[in-house]
Design goal:
alpha+beta, 3 domains, six-stranded antiparallel beta sheet, four-stranded mixed beta sheet, 23 strands, binds zinc ion, Helix-turn-helix domain-containing protein
Length: 413
């Protein structure tokens, strides 16, 4: 049985809201950003700090490259947080994220359930009488811009597509996807694979005036139907460009000339591409702790991440490296990580880890799901009825997608 990882995330218990333009850029500073976390915990902000609490020395004042100020920004309404174990409770959250149509409303709903994808620290600077800017912990805002949400959703969508192609490569023509050039390798996807909210436009029309006007109208008048444009070429669009030399370096002398043109070579290139894209997202904000289970004495591994986006990339990574076995609930269709044999339903409880002072405490929390109960009361009688009307167990299994063992157990008098 797989070991179930834990990935702790924080959701603001008061929810989130869009900050459209409430503050002038001058007053609003994106200035506070700190790198990495340690497990000294600041209860007020619900976050761990690297280094000593209250020391501003680890905090970057002034905007950093990674911080986006573009409005609107999705801000947490307060600093009160709830702890979620995304890993156990929503093991395939990255798929839900990839398929989110990034309207402001949808993003708000997602954040209210799972938190902001990244927590940037915005700081309102107050100019004092003598003209000196002062920074105070009382006016810190935690948030992430709309632009960044949209960008990350699109990127995740592409990565999920890449994963699908890698997992079921026999069904795809890899020659269409991986183009080998003189020095560069490009990865292309068909425009049909784009999310519905992205409008593909042929790149040879890029500079034509009619297209320019059209594109402006498409975004502004589509009422949220289209939120982004990509430039395509003959029905495909490019998602990545790689230097041939970087492949050469990795495989050293093992690359024979026909490597690039064989299906195995192309699959290898796709794996390398996805690996690189995942590595970029899982950065220095992941901590691993081994904790002893006080009941059994066994040692379990726990992953802590302060960043929901990283958590989702860890999930994607585990599926990419086939490190876990996830199942779909027979009742609600959501994914879950089975913790025992023959588990068909979402778990009713999940284990979370919280930190109290210097101790990590395991806590069992209800997931609020009762899929097994509902399935038994709602669907079991229907299955028994089908059987009584003369259908065989195999026929019922094919029709309903249920495992044969379960039907056998149900129809047994
Ligand atoms: Zn379920």
């Amino acid at each position: 049985m797989d070991r179930v990882y834990n990935c702790v995330s924080y959701v603001c218990s008061e929810g989130y809201e869009w900050e459209e333009r409430g503050l002038e850029i001058d007053d609003m500073l994106i200035s506070l950003y700190f790198k990495g976390i340690s497990w000294s915990f600041n209860e007020k902000y619900g976050i761990g700090f690297s280094g000593k609490i209250g020391k501003t020395i680890n905090w970057y004042f002034g905007s950093t490259q990674e911080v986006k100020i573009n409005y609107p920004v999705l801000l947490a309404k307060s600093d009160k947080t709830l702890v979620l174990n995304i890993w156990q409770q929503y093991p395939s959250l990255y798929k839900k994220f990839a398929n989110l149509q990034p309207t402001k409303n949808n993003i708000l709903q997602f954040a209210n359930s799972f938190g902001n994808i990244k927590d940037y620290y915005f700081h309102k600077n107050v100019i004092s009488k003598n003209g000196v800017k002062s920074y105070s912990v009382d006016n810190i805002f935690i948030g992430c811009s709309y632009e960044e949400w949209r960008k990350e959703i699109f990127e995740m969508f592409e990565n999920v597509k890449l994963l699908e192609i890698i997992q079921r490569f026999e069904e795809f023509d890899l020659d269409d996807i991986v183009h080998i050039g003189e020095d560069l390798i490009t990865i292309w996807l068909p425009i049909e694979a784009l999310p519905k909210w992205v409008y593909p436009c042929e790149s040879d029309k890029m500079f034509d005036e009619k297209t320019q006007n059209l594109l402006q109208n498409i975004l502004s008048q589509s009422e949220g139907k289209y939120l982004e444009i990509v430039w395509s070429h003959k029905g495909n669009y490019r998602i990545e460009t790689i230097r041939k030399s970087s492949i050469q370096q990795i495989f050293e002398d093992n690359v024979k000339p026909d490597f690039y043109f064989s299906p195995e070579g192309k699959l290898q290139i796709l794996k390398y591409t996805l690996m690189k894209r995942i590595n970029k997202k899982i950065t220095n904000n992941v901590t691993l702790r081994n904790l002893i289970n006080p009941q059994t004495g066994e040692i379990d591994e726990f992953i802590f991440s302060d960043n929901l986006l990283t958590t989702m990339y860890l999930q994607l990574n585990n599926d990419f490296l086939k490190k876990r076995n996830i199942k779909r609930c027979l009742y609600c269709g959501e994914y879950f990580t089975p913790v025992k044999e023959n588990q068909y339903y979402c778990p009713e409880e999940a284990e979370i880890i919280i930190q109290e002072k210097n101790k990590f405490i395991r806590k069992i929390v209800p997931t609020g799901k009762h899929c097994k109960n509902y399935d038994y009361t709602k669907n079991k009688p229907k299955i028994i009825d089908m059987y009584k009307k003369g259908m065989t167990i195999e026929e019922i299994s094919t029709l309903t997608g249920r495992p044969i063992e379960q039907i056998k157990r149900w129809v047994k008098r």
